[in-house]
């Protein structure tokens, strides 16, 4: 079994300590952060049939999620932070007054899935964005208030629950009604993927965390 498949297996079985060691080994052997996240995500996704209405095995899913979060927090964040510190030093030398772009991110109201959004927040934070993470089950108004308070450039909104998509659709009109139309709204998550940017009123619908990060990097905000 190759090491990426082994990492997916360890996450799937909730073996958190072994998963962190395996991810550390992979990174030391110069596998990319994207490969590690992809393989860790496969481990969680393998539990799909243990997370249905008919068959819901909470413990298995929670243990797998814990392993995934520890890999992201203890391993990928450390790796990205080292790169980020270096990049920040270089950036500071070039232009020490440059303002970091701000992303307000959260999982939409009614939905408690937050692993994917957590990955996006971590990636963006370590790629030179100021990230305000509102958590999960976030009402539309809370997104708008945070955008105003933080003078945000972007909203990142996640939904894995099809039933919550109508709430996601309310974000852009709510921003427009408060004169915040220049704030770009980026959606993600498996439920959003079943729809389209147009029908959800998004500026962009990201395929995955890296696609979202690329969009944030490509696009300037309103400052
Ligand atoms: C883990 C999990 C859980 C965990 C969540 C733990 C947590 N803290 O997040 C727990 C056990 C709590 C859970 C609960 C439930 N779950 Co669940 N869960 C899953 C599972 C197995 C994996 C999701 C996951 O974390 N994937 C790994 C992450 C890394 O991937 P991701 O979220 O897709 O994110 C990636 C991209 O989509 C993207 N992304 C995501 N968000 C964003 C946002 C932005 C801005 C950007 C740029 C990118 C981005 O970046 C990530 C990395 O690339 C899925 C099945 C599956 N295979 O997807 C079901 C699933 C999502 N769950 C489902 C259901 C039904 C439920 C429950 C209702 C079950 C129940 N009967 O109680 C409850 C939800 C209650 C609620 N109100 O929300 C359904 C949803 C069906 C639907 N379409 O509506 C699924 C699809 C299972 C199924 N086959 O039916 N679940």
Features:
223 residues, Methyltransferase, Methionine Synthase (B12-binding Domains), Chain A, domain 1, Rossmann fold, five-stranded parallel beta sheet, 11 helices, 56% helix, globular, binds cobalamin
How does the helix and strand content classify structurally? alpha/beta
The SSE string, one letter per element, is HHHHEHEHEHHEHHEH
Assigned CATH superfamily of the largest domain = Cobalamin-binding domain
Radius of gyration of CA atoms, rounded to a whole number: 18 Å
The chain-level mean pLDDT equals 88
Q: Count the domains.
A: 2
- Number of E-type strands: 5
Tally of helical runs: 11
**CATH class category of the largest domain:** Alpha Beta
Estimate what percentage of residues fall within beta strands. Answer: 5-15%
Within the largest sheet, what's the order of strands?
2-1-3-4-5
Structure description:
This protein has 223 residues and is α/β, with parallel strands linked by helices. The protein folds into two domains: 3-92, Methyltransferase, Methionine Synthase (B12-binding Domains), Chain A, domain 1, CATH 1.10.1240; 99-218, Rossmann fold (3-Layer(aba) Sandwich), CATH 3.40.50.280. It contains eleven helices and five strands. It has helices at residues 3-12, 16-28, 33-45, 58-94, 115-125, 140-150, 165-169, 171-177, 190-193, 197-200, 209-218, and strands at 101-107, 129-133, 154-158, 184-188, 204-205. Strands 2-1-3-4-5 form a five-stranded parallel β-sheet, sandwiched between helices. Helix 1 runs antiparallel to helix 2, helix 3 runs antiparallel to helix 4 and helix 4 runs parallel beside helix 5. The longest helix has 37 residues, at 58-94. It is globular. The mean pLDDT is 88. Cobalamin binds at residues 41, 44-45, 47-48, 51-53, 56, 58, 61-62, 65, 110-117, 119-120, 156-158, 160-163, 186, 188-191, 206, 208-209, 212. The site of cobalamin has 39 residues, from helix 3, helix 4, helix 5, strand 3 and strand 4.
